[in-house]
Amino acid sequence: MSAKPTLRQGSQGPNVVLLQTLLNTIPLTLMQRLVEDGLFGRQTLNRVLEFQNNAKLFADGVIGPKSWAMLDELTRLLLPLGVYRAQHQVSMPGSKSVFGRRC
User: Fold this and answer.
1) Three-state SS string across 34-66, please?
2) Phi, psi dihedrals of residue 73, rounded to the nearest 5°
3) In the CATH hierarchy, which fold is given to the domain comprising 14-87?
4) Per residue in 74-90, pLDDT tens?
């Protein structure tokens, strides 16, 4: 799997959709399900902070290599293999993504 970009509030695009989708697969949350719209706003930030705290990561709201690795590990355990593989195929801008949306 190729390296994923660092994401933070204000980021947008297919990698944010992937992040939102992965966060929505984690069952232990008190927060509402995220809208998978590709916009890293306040709700996504709050879910990222919750995830990082629960995962005992440094809770800075930035999704870097350690946060991606933990998300990958958790979702690999929670999702069927085919779904996991499909969700980790992020499209290039302008192409049709695996989520059926234009990027």
Assistant:
1) CCCCCECCHHHHHHHHHHHHHCCCCCCCCECHH
2) -65, -50
3) Muramoyl-pentapeptide Carboxypeptidase; domain 1 (1.10.101)
4) 888 877 654 555 555 55
Task: List all residues 6 or more positions away from 44 whose beta carbon is below 8 Å from its beta carbon.
Answer: 9, 16, 19, 20, 23, 34
Report the alpha-carbon distance of residue 50 to residue 31 in Å, rounded: 9
CB 75 within 8 A of CB 82: no
**Every domain of the chain and the residues it spans:** 14-87
29 vs 64, residue with greater confidence = 64
Can you tell me the distance from the alpha carbon of 86 to that of 99, in angstroms, rounded to the nearest whole number? 9
State the Cα–Cα distance between residues 54 and 93, nearest whole angstrom: 32
Asked if the model's pLDDT at residue 38 lies above 70, the reply is: yes
Interval 14-20 mean pLDDT: 96
